[in-house]
């Protein structure tokens, strides 16, 4: 089995991060973290999972803005990693960090309850 999709995913992640840091200047795009990239076996699509700080509305707006800029980013990624056909970029909101934070809050709450002495 080929490792090309994995190599392509890493290259895309690096280049998208650089584009977000240096070229995408829209103030409506919040603090964005790329949490992962999945490239299809035929290298035609790349799902880019992002985490965005802010309210749910701000998160959705950031994803929409990035999706609207995906054509530009696709051409830049293709030029930078020197591929003839860059994959179509699809931005997806990754809520796993929120879920992880919620689980940690619940676990800390359980620990605090166990540490309280029973007043019976």
UniProtKB/TrEMBL annotation:
Offer a single GO CC term for the protein: cytosol
Query: How far does the signal peptide extend, from start to end residue?
Result: none
Which InterPro entries would you find in this protein's record?
Answer: KH_dom-like_a/b, RbfA, RbfA_dom_sf, Ribosome-bd_factorA_CS
Entry keyword 4Fe-4S? no
| Alphabetized UniProt keyword annotations | Cytoplasm, Ribosome biogenesis
Q: Say which domain of life the source belongs to.
A: Bacteria
Where, subcellularly, is it found?
A: Cytoplasm
Task: Please give a single GO biological process term from the UniProt record.
Answer: maturation of SSU-rRNA
Q: Known PROSITE patterns for this protein?
A: RBFA (PS01319)
A Gene Ontology molecular function term of the record: ribosomal small subunit binding
Give the function comment from the record.
One of several proteins that assist in the late maturation steps of the functional core of the 30S ribosomal subunit. Associates with free 30S ribosomal subunits (but not with 30S subunits that are part of 70S ribosomes or polysomes). Required for efficient processing of 16S rRNA. May interact with the 5'-terminal helix region of 16S rRNA.
By sequence similarity, the record places it as follows: Belongs to the RbfA family.
Q: How does it assemble?
A: Monomer. Binds 30S ribosomal subunits, but not 50S ribosomal subunits or 70S ribosomes.
Query: Which NCBIfam families is this protein grouped with?
Result: rbfA
For this protein, the record's PANTHER family field holds: RIBOSOME-BINDING FACTOR A, CHLOROPLASTIC-RELATED
Q: What is this protein called?
A: Ribosome-binding factor A
Output the lineage of the source organism: Bacteria, Bacillati, Bacillota, Clostridia, Eubacteriales
């Amino acid at each position: 089995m080929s490792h090309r999709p994995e190599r392509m995913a890493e290259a895309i992640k690096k280049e998208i991060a650089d584009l977000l840091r240096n070229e995408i200047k829209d103030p409506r795009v919040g603090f964005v973290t790329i949490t992962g990239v999945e490239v299809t076996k035929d290298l035609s699509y790349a799902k880019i999972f992002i985490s965005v700080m802010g309210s749910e509305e701000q998160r959705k707006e950031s994803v929409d803005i990035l999706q609207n800029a995906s054509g530009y980013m696709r051409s830049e990624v293709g030029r930078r990693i020197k591929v003839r056909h860059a994959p179509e970029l699809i931005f997806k909101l990754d809520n796993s960090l929120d879920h992880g934070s919620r689980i940690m809050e619940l676990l800390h709450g359980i620990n605090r309850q166990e540490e309280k002495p029973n007043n019976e």
